[in-house]
Design a protein that fits this description.
The structure is a single chain. With 275 residues, the chain is an alpha/beta fold. It has a domain of 180 residues: P-loop containing nucleotide triphosphate hydrolases (Rossmann fold). Helices cover 33% and strands 24% of the residues. The chain contains ten helices and ten strands. Strands 6-7-8-3-9-10 form a six-stranded mixed sheet, sandwiched between helices. Strands 2-1-4-5 form a four-stranded antiparallel sheet, covered by helices on one side. It binds adenosine-5'-triphosphate. The site of adenosine-5'-triphosphate (ATP) has 10 residues, from helix 2. Pfam families: ABC_tran. InterPro entries: AAA+_ATPase, ABC_transporter-like_ATP-bd, ABC_transporter-like_CS, ABC_transpr_PhnC, MetN_ABC_transporter-like, P-loop_NTPase. Belongs to the ABC transporter superfamily. Drug exporter-2 (TC 3.A.1.117) family.
């Protein structure tokens, strides 16, 4: 099946070969309270089509990192450089609130608790992904273009959710909600997709289904960053892994390079709880 629905202008897979940089994170830091640093001097580049796992023990700073990249949490220091298609650069860590909306459409996020509107139907929930590009009044009145509706239906069909299109979101299973959340994020035409523990509450079958979907999304040139707790999934699906301990990157490389020593440094005694 053609996945051109993921981005109206599909990114050629050759982009992967040229390793096109889409984001540069430089010296990123976050302190919620004075004196306690949750992120400390985080620097890395993100490239088109990568599927990057972020791993580390509970409280390491993984969610804070993704939320800071997306702008839902404000960075305390450092830069998040958006490498735009026209060659220009933009530091999204210093964007005024009114411009943040545009960035969030380029950098979609799937939240741990899905963040669907329970009483709205599935199709409308997906269409709400267009919020950043549609006037507030139009989206409030649920006025979306035929093109948007066709795209939302295409995405739901791709994720086998079309039969539930008119059901209320509150009546879906966890795996179904996650697929709707993915469709909604893709409605924004993001070039980056951030997923905060997208498989945390799913059974093994749905876990694999979601990981396959994330792989297909990255295969289409969208950069995916995903917080995961399963090293097994990281090794099976991801092209790169960033390991965080106490808010600092202590590993950035290929999943095959994850060895016992590294995992012990990352997880300490929690290592026994990994699968
Ligand atoms: N809003 C907040 N105010 C103050 N401290 C916070 C806030 N959010 C997170 N923290 C703290 O920041 C640290 C990192 O939290 P974060 O949620 O980013 O970790 P995580 O690696 O995603 O953990 P988990 O795997 O358990 O989700 C933790 O010590 C947490 O208590």
């Amino acid at each position: 099946m053609s996945l051109a629905i993921l981005r109206p202008v599909p990114v050629e897979s050759s982009l992967r070969a040229v390793n096109k940089k889409v984001l540069s994170v430089v010296g990123l830091g976050k302190a919620y309270n004075a004196g306690s640093r949750v992120l400390d001097d985080i620097s890395f580049d993100l490239h088109a089509g990568e599927l990057v796992a972020v791993i580390g023990r509970s409280g390491a700073g993984k969610s804070t990192l993704l939320h800071t990249l997306n702008g839902t949490i404000t960075a305390s220091e450092g830069q998040i450089i958006n490498q735009r298609d026209d060659g220009s650069q933009q530091n999204v860590a210093a964007l005024p609130a009114r411009k943040m909306r545009q960035w969030r459409s380029e950098c979609g996020m799937i939240f741990q608790d899905f963040c669907l509107v329970p009483r709205l139907d599935v199709l409308t929930n997906v269409l709400l992904g267009r919020l950043s590009q549609t006037s507030t009044l139009k989206s409030f009145c649920k006025i979306f273009s035929d093109e948007d509706r066709a795209r939302a239906i295409g995405l739901l069909e791709w994720l086998n959710m079309l039969p539930q299109a008119l059901q209320r979101a509150e009546n879906l299973s966890g795996g179904q909600m996650q697929r709707v959340a993915i469709c909604r994020a893709l409605m924004q035409n993001p070039k980056i997709l951030l997923a905060d523990e997208p498989v945390a509450s799913l059974d093994p079958k749905n876990t694999r289904r979601i990981m396959e979907v994330l792989r297909q999304i990255s295969d289409n040139g969208i950069s995916v960053m995903v917080n995961l707790h399963s090293v097994e999934l990281v090794k099976e699906y991801c092209t790169r892994v960033i390991g965080i301990a106490s808010g600092r990157i202590i590993f950035d490389g290929h999943p095959a390079q994850l060895n016992e020593n590294l995992l012990h440094t990352l997880y300490g005694e929690e290592i026994t709880q990994l699968n």
